[in-house]
Amino acid sequence: MTNLTFSPHASMAPGLRKNGFSLIELMVAVTIGLFITLGLSQVFLSMYSTSKSQNSLAQFQDNERLALVMLTNTVELAGYFASPLTTTLASLQATAYTNTDGSVFSNGIGVVGKNTYPTTGTSDSLNVYYQSSGNDGVINCQGQPATTGTSTVFINSFTINSKNELVCAVTPIISGTTGSTTSALVLASNVASMTILYGVDVLGTGTTSSYLTATALNNSSPSLWPNVRTVQITLNFYVANVFNLATAPTTTTAWVQTINIMRAS
């Protein structure tokens, strides 16, 4: 009987294959990995771009809301005076006051402005005039109240500056003495223009019958400024290009707000 012996150094059978990956398999795996990485990168960039677009639109909407809230809260108070027992609208401004835009407040007028758009390429301006006793909760367009117990007349001036920002400055008149005008406060950015029409009770029926520009009101005789019942403000906002936020916006969208003056309602 023949004895069989096993040698550990014996070669493997020709039909058997060593474990491991071939070069082709490795190249295929690397290629698949690159495609997966590229796909994930595209998903990330798309989500990032969408997030930036949403943030830009949200900021745009916030600009619109803040601008219209401040304008509405201020214009509604035009001609307001603290105590009807001791004050009348006509006595608020005993002497005429000339605003920085050249418009003039006189007795019985709570709102005036200047009409320059689009003739000169600059926006219209608006000035609103009312009184606060300091403890009636009335604030100016910069959110500041009058000193407690001090009767103060606020002149709130709205303009669009050279940076396309809606700004407001306040001039206080305390006990007949005109104070220093505050620095302009930015209320909204990316404002292309502001145009203003004034709803006027031309026929004396107690309702708005015509919408006129400040120029038309200035040329009216007798003056129709005391008959203004509403103010229609159109703000044209620049809209960002959501597909390329790096480019400067060129298109605009209009927001129109008609504000009732409470004393005339």
TrEMBL record:
Domain of life (superkingdom): Bacteria
UniProt record, GO biological process: type IV pilus assembly
Matching Pfam families: N_methyl (PF07963), PilW (PF16074)
Keywords associated with the record: Membrane, Transmembrane, Transmembrane helix
Transmembrane segments: 20-45
Name under which the protein is recorded: Prepilin-type N-terminal cleavage/methylation domain
Organism: Solimicrobium silvestre
Taxonomic lineage of the native organism: Bacteria, Pseudomonadati, Pseudomonadota, Betaproteobacteria, Burkholderiales
